[in-house]
Amino acid sequence: MRALAAIALVLWATAACADWRGDVQSATLVGEGDFSVFGFKLYRAQMWSERVPVDFDERFALHIIYARGIKRERFVDAGISEIKRLASVPIPADTLARWRADMLQAFVDVGPGDQLSAVYLPDKGVRFYAGDRMTGEFDDPAFARAFFGIWLDPSTRAPTLRRQLLGTAQ
User: Fold this and answer.
1) Using one digit for the tens of pLDDT, what is the confidence trace for 109-147?
2) Domain total in the chain
3) Contact residues for 77 (Cβ-Cβ < 8 A; gap 6+)
4) How far apart, in Å, are the Cα atoms of 17 and each of 10, 87, 98, 135?
5) Which of 13, 126, 15 lies closest to 60 in space, CA to CA?
6) CA 20 to 30 Å from 65, out of 79, 96, 109, 148?
């Protein structure tokens, strides 16, 4: 009986901590902005962090609220394409294949109003959420940096959104 109670407690605690906000409890909203393509808003992104300026020495979260439906395969294709474009040196094919598989596991199809979040775990990796449900955790610091670089790298395709997320937009 005691073992069943312990298992129930672990399952309850896991479910209670599954929300991405639990990973960055003292974080505040640093900045937010919309991402649009050809005038069509795709999503609103928010950066949550305990520290400003945001850096890769502390936990932070990228939270996205979608305005349109997007298939997970499209997310993955676009993400891998951007990671490759932003890389300072070519990324080995086997590494890209592993990252692609991780992204396919963690991402879900979204519709208007759906929310996806990613939490950066310093020196560890990244944790992904769909709504309040954790969909994947990957212990790969290089993947985490490359993934968040899509938004935070100075060479991002969305420099205005980057400044908004980092709280440096005028």
Assistant:
1) 999 999 999 999 999 999 999 999 999 999 999 999 999
2) 1
3) none
4) 11, 34, 27, 13
5) 126
6) 96
125 vs 137: CA distance, rounded Å? 8
Whether 54 is in a domain gets the answer: yes
Nearest alpha carbon to residue 116 among 165, 65, 81, 50: 65
63-89 confidence digits (pLDDT tens): 999 999 999 999 999 999 999 999 999
Q: What does 48-79 look like in DSSP terms, one character per residue? A: EESSSS--TTS-EEEEEEESS-B-HHHHHHHH
- List of residues 6+ apart from 134 with CB closer than 8 A: 18, 20, 127, 128
CB under 8 Å to 25, separation ≥6 — which residues? none
CATH number at residue 60: 3.50.70.10
Q: What angle do CA 114, 117, 122 make, to 5 degrees?
A: 175
In a domain, 122, yes or no: yes
Query: Which residue range is the domain that position 148 belongs to?
Result: 2-165
Hunting for tokens 């936990």 — which residue is that? 59
Q: Is residue 170, in this structure, part of any structural domain at all?
A: no
